[in-house]
Protein backbone atom coordinates (compact mmCIF):
# COMPACT_ATOMS: atom_id res chain seq x y z
CA UNK A 1 0.00 0.00 0.00
CA UNK A 2 1.33 3.47 -0.89
CA UNK A 3 2.02 5.86 1.95
CA UNK A 4 -0.93 8.21 2.33
CA UNK A 5 -0.35 11.74 1.10
CA UNK A 6 -2.34 14.58 2.62
CA UNK A 7 -1.89 18.10 1.33
CA UNK A 8 -2.45 20.80 3.90
CA UNK A 9 -4.54 23.74 2.71
CA UNK A 10 -2.84 27.07 3.48
CA UNK A 11 -6.16 28.89 4.01
CA UNK A 12 -6.81 26.59 6.98
CA UNK A 13 -4.89 29.04 9.19
CA UNK A 14 -7.34 31.80 8.25
CA UNK A 15 -10.25 29.48 8.94
CA UNK A 16 -8.81 28.56 12.34
CA UNK A 17 -8.70 32.26 13.31
CA UNK A 18 -12.16 32.86 11.94
CA UNK A 19 -13.75 29.97 13.81
CA UNK A 20 -11.80 30.89 16.96
CA UNK A 21 -13.14 34.44 16.80
CA UNK A 22 -16.63 33.06 16.26
CA UNK A 23 -16.57 30.80 19.31
CA UNK A 24 -14.94 33.43 21.52
CA UNK A 25 -17.50 36.01 20.43
CA UNK A 26 -20.31 33.61 21.34
CA UNK A 27 -18.69 32.95 24.68
CA UNK A 28 -18.33 36.67 25.42
CA UNK A 29 -21.97 37.33 24.51
CA UNK A 30 -23.16 34.49 26.71
CA UNK A 31 -20.98 35.36 29.73
CA UNK A 32 -21.55 39.11 29.73
CA UNK A 33 -25.06 39.28 28.30
CA UNK A 34 -23.79 41.90 25.82
CA UNK A 35 -25.89 40.37 23.04
CA UNK A 36 -28.60 37.75 22.88
CA UNK A 37 -27.68 34.23 21.86
CA UNK A 38 -29.89 32.16 19.55
CA UNK A 39 -29.38 28.47 18.96
CA UNK A 40 -30.31 27.48 15.44
CA UNK A 41 -30.53 24.22 13.53
CA UNK A 42 -28.07 23.99 10.65
CA UNK A 43 -30.65 24.90 8.03
CA UNK A 44 -32.83 27.00 10.26
CA UNK A 45 -33.47 30.73 9.73
CA UNK A 46 -29.96 31.87 10.69
CA UNK A 47 -30.25 34.92 8.41
CA UNK A 48 -33.24 36.22 10.33
CA UNK A 49 -31.52 35.68 13.69
CA UNK A 50 -28.32 37.35 12.57
CA UNK A 51 -30.20 40.30 11.08
CA UNK A 52 -31.94 40.79 14.43
CA UNK A 53 -28.61 41.11 16.23
CA UNK A 54 -28.43 37.63 17.74
CA UNK A 55 -25.15 35.79 17.89
CA UNK A 56 -25.98 32.41 16.42
CA UNK A 57 -24.81 29.05 17.74
CA UNK A 58 -25.37 25.75 15.92
CA UNK A 59 -25.63 22.68 18.16
CA UNK A 60 -25.11 20.40 15.14
CA UNK A 61 -21.72 22.01 14.66
CA UNK A 62 -21.01 21.23 18.30
CA UNK A 63 -22.16 17.67 17.58
CA UNK A 64 -19.60 17.46 14.77
CA UNK A 65 -16.89 18.83 17.10
CA UNK A 66 -17.82 16.19 19.69
CA UNK A 67 -17.53 13.55 16.97
CA UNK A 68 -14.28 14.70 15.41
CA UNK A 69 -12.66 15.15 18.83
CA UNK A 70 -13.80 11.60 19.63
CA UNK A 71 -15.63 12.52 22.81
CA UNK A 72 -19.06 11.59 21.48
CA UNK A 73 -19.15 7.83 22.02
CA UNK A 74 -18.55 8.15 25.77
CA UNK A 75 -21.22 10.84 26.14
CA UNK A 76 -24.06 9.14 24.26
CA UNK A 77 -24.94 6.73 27.12
CA UNK A 78 -25.57 9.70 29.43
CA UNK A 79 -28.47 10.78 27.22
CA UNK A 80 -29.57 7.18 26.72
CA UNK A 81 -30.05 6.97 30.49
CA UNK A 82 -32.62 9.79 30.20
CA UNK A 83 -34.66 7.79 27.72
CA UNK A 84 -33.13 9.04 24.46
CA UNK A 85 -32.58 5.87 22.47
CA UNK A 86 -29.15 4.85 21.13
CA UNK A 87 -30.92 4.59 17.74
CA UNK A 88 -31.78 8.29 17.45
CA UNK A 89 -29.48 11.08 16.25
CA UNK A 90 -26.06 10.70 17.87
CA UNK A 91 -25.50 14.45 17.54
CA UNK A 92 -28.48 14.86 19.87
CA UNK A 93 -27.43 12.18 22.34
CA UNK A 94 -23.75 13.18 22.45
CA UNK A 95 -24.59 16.88 22.77
CA UNK A 96 -27.09 16.37 25.59
CA UNK A 97 -24.61 13.95 27.19
CA UNK A 98 -21.92 16.65 27.03
CA UNK A 99 -24.24 19.19 28.62
CA UNK A 100 -25.15 16.83 31.45
CA UNK A 101 -21.49 16.02 32.05
CA UNK A 102 -20.61 19.74 31.96
CA UNK A 103 -18.01 19.27 29.25
CA UNK A 104 -17.20 20.58 25.78
CA UNK A 105 -14.19 20.01 23.50
CA UNK A 106 -14.28 23.76 22.79
CA UNK A 107 -12.55 24.23 26.17
CA UNK A 108 -9.58 22.30 24.91
CA UNK A 109 -9.21 24.45 21.81
CA UNK A 110 -10.06 27.71 23.62
CA UNK A 111 -9.24 27.49 27.34
CA UNK A 112 -11.27 30.65 28.09
CA UNK A 113 -14.43 28.78 27.10
CA UNK A 114 -15.86 26.78 29.98
CA UNK A 115 -19.20 25.82 28.51
CA UNK A 116 -21.23 26.24 25.34
CA UNK A 117 -23.11 29.55 25.16
CA UNK A 118 -26.40 29.68 27.01
CA UNK A 119 -29.31 30.34 24.67
CA UNK A 120 -31.85 33.12 25.02
CA UNK A 121 -34.00 31.44 22.37
CA UNK A 122 -33.95 28.14 20.47
CA UNK A 123 -35.01 28.13 16.83
CA UNK A 124 -35.43 24.96 14.76
CA UNK A 125 -36.51 23.90 11.31
CA UNK A 126 -37.74 20.32 10.86
CA UNK A 127 -36.81 20.33 7.15
CA UNK A 128 -33.98 17.91 7.93
CA UNK A 129 -35.55 15.70 10.64
CA UNK A 130 -37.73 15.66 13.74
CA UNK A 131 -34.73 15.00 15.96
CA UNK A 132 -33.75 18.67 15.97
CA UNK A 133 -37.12 19.64 17.46
CA UNK A 134 -36.81 17.01 20.18
CA UNK A 135 -33.23 18.08 20.81
CA UNK A 136 -34.13 21.76 21.23
CA UNK A 137 -37.26 20.81 23.17
CA UNK A 138 -35.08 19.13 25.77
CA UNK A 139 -32.97 22.27 26.22
CA UNK A 140 -36.10 24.44 26.35
CA UNK A 141 -37.36 22.44 29.32
CA UNK A 142 -33.96 22.24 30.95
CA UNK A 143 -33.00 25.91 30.54
CA UNK A 144 -36.50 27.37 30.52
CA UNK A 145 -36.04 29.39 27.36
CA UNK A 146 -38.49 29.79 24.47
CA UNK A 147 -38.29 27.22 21.68
CA UNK A 148 -39.86 28.23 18.37
CA UNK A 149 -39.53 26.93 14.86
CA UNK A 150 -40.70 25.90 11.45
CA UNK A 151 -42.53 22.65 10.81
CA UNK A 152 -41.48 21.94 7.29
CA UNK A 153 -43.02 19.81 4.55
CA UNK A 154 -40.83 16.80 3.74
CA UNK A 155 -40.38 14.59 0.65
CA UNK A 156 -41.06 17.69 -1.41
CA UNK A 157 -41.58 16.85 -5.10
CA UNK A 158 -41.47 20.34 -6.60
CA UNK A 159 -40.72 23.47 -4.62
CA UNK A 160 -43.92 25.22 -5.63
CA UNK A 161 -45.51 28.44 -4.47
CA UNK A 162 -47.77 26.71 -1.91
CA UNK A 163 -45.12 25.18 0.34
CA UNK A 164 -42.88 28.24 -0.13
CA UNK A 165 -45.67 30.54 1.10
CA UNK A 166 -46.39 28.19 4.01
CA UNK A 167 -42.76 28.19 5.19
CA UNK A 168 -42.32 31.93 4.51
CA UNK A 169 -45.36 32.65 6.73
CA UNK A 170 -43.91 30.39 9.42
CA UNK A 171 -40.61 32.29 9.31
CA UNK A 172 -42.45 35.61 9.57
CA UNK A 173 -44.43 34.24 12.52
CA UNK A 174 -41.17 33.80 14.44
CA UNK A 175 -40.51 37.55 14.37
CA UNK A 176 -42.70 38.73 17.30
CA UNK A 177 -41.10 36.27 19.75
CA UNK A 178 -37.63 37.07 18.43
CA UNK A 179 -38.32 40.80 18.79
CA UNK A 180 -39.55 40.29 22.33
CA UNK A 181 -36.48 38.26 23.36
CA UNK A 182 -34.06 40.62 21.57
CA UNK A 183 -35.81 43.77 22.77
CA UNK A 184 -35.48 45.24 19.25
CA UNK A 185 -37.57 45.45 16.10
CA UNK A 186 -36.66 43.66 12.92
CA UNK A 187 -34.95 45.99 10.44
CA UNK A 188 -36.03 44.66 7.05
CA UNK A 189 -33.11 46.31 5.27
CA UNK A 190 -30.69 44.52 7.53
CA UNK A 191 -32.46 41.24 6.78
CA UNK A 192 -32.20 41.90 3.04
CA UNK A 193 -28.50 42.60 3.43
CA UNK A 194 -27.91 39.45 5.52
CA UNK A 195 -29.77 37.24 3.04
CA UNK A 196 -27.71 38.77 0.20
CA UNK A 197 -24.51 38.02 2.14
CA UNK A 198 -25.64 34.44 2.72
CA UNK A 199 -26.23 34.09 -1.00
CA UNK A 200 -22.73 35.33 -1.79
CA UNK A 201 -21.23 32.98 0.80
CA UNK A 202 -23.20 30.13 -0.65
CA UNK A 203 -22.11 30.94 -4.21
CA UNK A 204 -18.45 31.12 -3.20
CA UNK A 205 -18.67 27.85 -1.27
CA UNK A 206 -20.29 26.28 -4.34
CA UNK A 207 -17.43 27.55 -6.49
CA UNK A 208 -14.87 26.08 -4.09
CA UNK A 209 -16.58 22.67 -4.23
CA UNK A 210 -16.89 22.89 -8.03
CA UNK A 211 -13.10 23.09 -8.40
CA UNK A 212 -13.02 19.36 -7.54
CA UNK A 213 -14.55 18.66 -10.98
CA UNK A 214 -11.04 19.25 -12.28
CA UNK A 215 -8.71 16.23 -12.77
CA UNK A 216 -6.86 15.86 -10.52
CA UNK A 217 -9.15 17.33 -7.87
CA UNK A 218 -7.55 20.09 -5.78
CA UNK A 219 -9.61 19.18 -2.70
CA UNK A 220 -11.55 16.21 -1.39
CA UNK A 221 -14.73 15.60 0.56
CA UNK A 222 -12.61 15.29 3.70
CA UNK A 223 -11.18 18.78 3.16
CA UNK A 224 -14.70 19.99 2.50
CA UNK A 225 -16.04 18.70 5.83
CA UNK A 226 -13.49 20.92 7.60
CA UNK A 227 -13.67 23.98 5.36
CA UNK A 228 -17.47 24.13 5.38
CA UNK A 229 -17.31 25.50 8.96
CA UNK A 230 -17.79 29.16 7.95
CA UNK A 231 -20.56 28.26 5.45
CA UNK A 232 -22.47 26.62 8.31
CA UNK A 233 -21.69 28.94 11.22
CA UNK A 234 -20.96 32.30 9.58
CA UNK A 235 -23.20 32.52 6.54
CA UNK A 236 -24.63 36.01 6.34
CA UNK A 237 -21.38 37.65 7.49
CA UNK A 238 -18.70 39.48 5.45
CA UNK A 239 -16.00 37.42 7.24
CA UNK A 240 -17.25 34.22 5.61
CA UNK A 241 -17.01 35.83 2.17
CA UNK A 242 -13.42 36.94 2.75
CA UNK A 243 -12.53 33.41 3.77
CA UNK A 244 -14.06 31.67 0.78
CA UNK A 245 -12.50 34.16 -1.63
CA UNK A 246 -9.10 33.20 -0.24
CA UNK A 247 -9.83 29.47 -0.34
CA UNK A 248 -11.11 29.74 -3.92
CA UNK A 249 -7.93 31.50 -5.04
CA UNK A 250 -5.87 28.72 -3.45
CA UNK A 251 -7.90 25.98 -5.15
CA UNK A 252 -7.64 27.71 -8.53
CA UNK A 253 -3.89 28.06 -8.01
CA UNK A 254 -3.68 24.34 -7.26
CA UNK A 255 -5.43 23.64 -10.55
CA UNK A 256 -3.08 25.98 -12.42
CA UNK A 257 -0.06 24.31 -10.80
CA UNK A 258 -1.41 20.78 -11.31
CA UNK A 259 -1.49 20.16 -7.54
CA UNK A 260 -3.66 17.18 -6.62
CA UNK A 261 -5.32 16.64 -3.24
CA UNK A 262 -4.56 12.94 -3.73
CA UNK A 263 -1.21 12.09 -5.29
CA UNK A 264 -1.47 10.38 -8.67
CA UNK A 265 -5.29 10.33 -8.53
CA UNK A 266 -6.59 7.33 -10.46
CA UNK A 267 -10.20 6.99 -9.26
CA UNK A 268 -12.90 9.48 -8.26
CA UNK A 269 -15.70 8.71 -5.80
CA UNK A 270 -18.85 10.43 -4.57
CA UNK A 271 -19.72 10.31 -0.84
CA UNK A 272 -23.43 10.13 -0.11
CA UNK A 273 -24.42 10.54 3.52
CA UNK A 274 -22.95 11.89 6.73
CA UNK A 275 -19.21 11.96 7.40
CA UNK A 276 -17.94 9.55 10.06
CA UNK A 277 -16.64 12.37 12.24
CA UNK A 278 -14.49 10.20 14.47
CA UNK A 279 -12.73 8.71 11.44
CA UNK A 280 -12.15 11.68 9.12
CA UNK A 281 -8.38 11.38 9.14
CA UNK A 282 -8.40 7.58 8.79
CA UNK A 283 -10.86 7.69 5.92
CA UNK A 284 -8.95 10.46 4.19
CA UNK A 285 -5.77 8.40 4.47
CA UNK A 286 -7.48 5.17 3.47
CA UNK A 287 -8.71 6.65 0.18
CA UNK A 288 -5.46 8.51 -0.46
CA UNK A 289 -3.56 5.24 -0.02
CA UNK A 290 -5.74 3.80 -2.80
CA UNK A 291 -5.02 6.84 -5.01
CA UNK A 292 -8.71 7.50 -4.88
CA UNK A 293 -10.10 11.00 -4.48
CA UNK A 294 -13.54 11.44 -2.93
CA UNK A 295 -14.34 14.47 -5.05
CA UNK A 296 -17.90 15.40 -4.18
CA UNK A 297 -20.66 14.79 -1.68
CA UNK A 298 -24.25 15.63 -0.96
CA UNK A 299 -23.27 16.65 2.56
CA UNK A 300 -20.84 19.46 1.72
CA UNK A 301 -23.08 20.66 -1.09
CA UNK A 302 -26.01 21.03 1.30
CA UNK A 303 -24.75 24.51 2.20
CA UNK A 304 -25.00 25.72 -1.38
CA UNK A 305 -28.30 27.62 -1.43
CA UNK A 306 -29.16 28.96 -4.83
CA UNK A 307 -32.44 30.58 -3.86
CA UNK A 308 -31.38 33.27 -1.36
CA UNK A 309 -32.41 36.64 -2.71
CA UNK A 310 -32.05 39.83 -0.69
CA UNK A 311 -34.91 41.49 -2.57
CA UNK A 312 -37.39 38.87 -1.35
CA UNK A 313 -35.95 37.71 1.97
CA UNK A 314 -38.73 35.64 3.57
CA UNK A 315 -39.84 33.79 0.46
CA UNK A 316 -36.30 33.21 -0.73
CA UNK A 317 -35.26 31.82 2.66
CA UNK A 318 -38.27 29.50 2.54
CA UNK A 319 -37.38 28.39 -0.98
CA UNK A 320 -33.73 27.80 -0.04
CA UNK A 321 -34.67 25.71 2.99
CA UNK A 322 -37.13 23.66 0.89
CA UNK A 323 -34.82 23.07 -2.06
CA UNK A 324 -32.38 21.12 0.08
CA UNK A 325 -31.63 17.55 -0.95
CA UNK A 326 -32.67 16.13 2.44
CA UNK A 327 -36.15 17.67 2.14
CA UNK A 328 -36.85 16.23 -1.30
CA UNK A 329 -38.52 13.12 -2.69
CA UNK A 330 -36.67 10.10 -4.04
CA UNK A 331 -37.09 10.99 -7.72
CA UNK A 332 -35.47 14.38 -7.14
CA UNK A 333 -32.63 12.72 -5.19
CA UNK A 334 -31.94 10.31 -8.04
CA UNK A 335 -31.84 13.13 -10.59
CA UNK A 336 -29.61 15.23 -8.34
CA UNK A 337 -27.15 12.40 -7.77
CA UNK A 338 -27.04 11.51 -11.45
CA UNK A 339 -26.20 15.12 -12.27
CA UNK A 340 -23.46 15.21 -9.60
CA UNK A 341 -21.91 11.93 -10.83
CA UNK A 342 -21.73 13.34 -14.35
CA UNK A 343 -20.49 16.80 -13.33
CA UNK A 344 -17.64 15.44 -11.21
CA UNK A 345 -16.70 12.53 -13.49
CA UNK A 346 -17.26 9.95 -10.76
CA UNK A 347 -16.22 6.29 -11.05
CA UNK A 348 -18.13 5.00 -8.03
CA UNK A 349 -20.50 6.13 -5.31
CA UNK A 350 -20.16 5.31 -1.65
CA UNK A 351 -23.22 5.39 0.63
CA UNK A 352 -22.65 5.82 4.33
CA UNK A 353 -25.47 4.01 6.12
CA UNK A 354 -25.37 5.97 9.38
CA UNK A 355 -27.05 3.98 12.12
CA UNK A 356 -28.54 6.98 13.91
CA UNK A 357 -29.41 9.18 10.93
CA UNK A 358 -31.91 7.58 8.55
CA UNK A 359 -32.50 11.06 7.12
CA UNK A 360 -29.04 11.14 5.60
CA UNK A 361 -28.81 7.41 4.77
CA UNK A 362 -30.17 7.15 1.26
CA UNK A 363 -29.27 3.51 0.69
CA UNK A 364 -32.28 2.02 2.48
CA UNK A 365 -35.06 2.15 -0.12
CA UNK A 366 -33.40 0.85 -3.26
CA UNK A 367 -31.97 4.17 -4.44
CA UNK A 368 -28.43 2.79 -5.06
CA UNK A 369 -29.81 0.03 -7.28
CA UNK A 370 -32.05 2.41 -9.25
CA UNK A 371 -29.24 4.91 -9.69
CA UNK A 372 -26.78 2.25 -10.79
CA UNK A 373 -29.28 0.91 -13.35
CA UNK A 374 -29.68 4.45 -14.67
CA UNK A 375 -26.05 5.54 -14.71
CA UNK A 376 -23.95 2.36 -14.69
CA UNK A 377 -21.93 3.85 -11.79
CA UNK A 378 -21.22 1.09 -9.21
CA UNK A 379 -21.90 1.67 -5.54
CA UNK A 380 -20.69 0.53 -2.15
CA UNK A 381 -22.53 0.82 1.18
CA UNK A 382 -20.48 1.19 4.33
CA UNK A 383 -22.15 0.83 7.72
CA UNK A 384 -21.21 3.27 10.42
CA UNK A 385 -22.39 6.38 12.15
CA UNK A 386 -21.70 10.08 12.35
CA UNK A 387 -20.80 10.13 16.05
CA UNK A 388 -21.34 6.71 17.62
CA UNK A 389 -18.10 4.90 16.89
CA UNK A 390 -19.49 1.68 18.38
CA UNK A 391 -21.30 1.32 15.05
CA UNK A 392 -18.08 1.56 13.04
CA UNK A 393 -15.93 -1.42 12.08
CA UNK A 394 -12.62 -0.07 10.78
CA UNK A 395 -11.50 -3.43 9.47
CA UNK A 396 -14.74 -4.02 7.60
CA UNK A 397 -14.62 -0.54 6.10
CA UNK A 398 -11.04 -1.00 4.96
CA UNK A 399 -11.74 -4.42 3.40
CA UNK A 400 -14.87 -3.15 1.63
CA UNK A 401 -13.22 -0.01 0.30
CA UNK A 402 -10.16 -1.86 -0.96
CA UNK A 403 -12.35 -4.46 -2.70
CA UNK A 404 -14.49 -1.70 -4.22
CA UNK A 405 -11.43 0.13 -5.53
CA UNK A 406 -10.15 -3.11 -7.03
CA UNK A 407 -13.51 -3.69 -8.72
CA UNK A 408 -13.49 -0.16 -10.14
CA UNK A 409 -9.91 -0.52 -11.37
CA UNK A 410 -10.87 -3.67 -13.27
CA UNK A 411 -13.55 -1.65 -15.09
CA UNK A 412 -11.26 1.28 -15.81
S1 LIG B 1 -30.31 15.11 9.95
FE1 LIG B 1 -29.47 13.33 10.99
S2 LIG B 1 -27.54 14.00 11.89
FE2 LIG B 1 -28.70 15.83 11.33
S3 LIG B 1 -29.77 16.37 13.23
FE3 LIG B 1 -31.17 15.11 12.03
S4 LIG B 1 -30.87 12.98 12.71
FE4 LIG B 1 -29.13 14.26 13.45
Description:
The protein is an alpha/beta fold. Helix 1 (12-32) runs antiparallel to helix 12 and helix 8 crosses helix 15. The longest helix is centred in the middle third of the chain and has 23 residues, at 188-210. It is globular and about 65 Å long. The chain is 53% helix and 10% strand. It has two domains: 12-186, Rossmann fold (3-Layer(aba) Sandwich), CATH 3.40.50; 190-411, Rossmann fold. The two termini are 19 Å apart. Iron/sulfur cluster (SF4) binds next to helix 7.
Write the layout of secondary structure elements.
Blueprint: H1 12-32, E1 37-40, H2 46-51, E2 55-57, H3 59-68, H4 72-80, H5 90-101, H6 106-109, E3 121-125, H7 131-143, E4 147-150, H8 161-182, H9 188-210, H10 221-227, H11 229-233, H12 238-257, E5 267-272, H13 280-289, E6 292-297, H14 298-301, H15 313-323, H16 330-343, E7 348-354, H17 367-375, E8 379-384, H18 394-411
Helix pairs in contact: 1-12, 3-5, 4-5, 8-15, 9-12, 16-17
The structure holds iron/sulfur cluster.
Q: Which labels suit this protein?
A:
412 residues; alpha/beta; Rossmann fold; 2 domains; 4-stranded parallel sheet; 8 strands; binds iron/sulfur cluster
Amino acid sequence: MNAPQRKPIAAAAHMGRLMGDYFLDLDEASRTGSRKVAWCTSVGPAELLRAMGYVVYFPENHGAVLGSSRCATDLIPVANALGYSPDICSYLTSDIGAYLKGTTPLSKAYPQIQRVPKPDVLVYNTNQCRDVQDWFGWYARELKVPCIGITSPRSVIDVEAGPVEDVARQIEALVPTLEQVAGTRLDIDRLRETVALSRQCSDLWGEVLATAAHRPAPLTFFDGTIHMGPAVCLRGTPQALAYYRELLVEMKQRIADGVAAVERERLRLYWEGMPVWGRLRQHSELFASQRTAVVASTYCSSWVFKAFDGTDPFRSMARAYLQLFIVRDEAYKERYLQEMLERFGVDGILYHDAKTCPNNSNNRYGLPQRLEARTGVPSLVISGDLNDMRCVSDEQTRINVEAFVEQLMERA
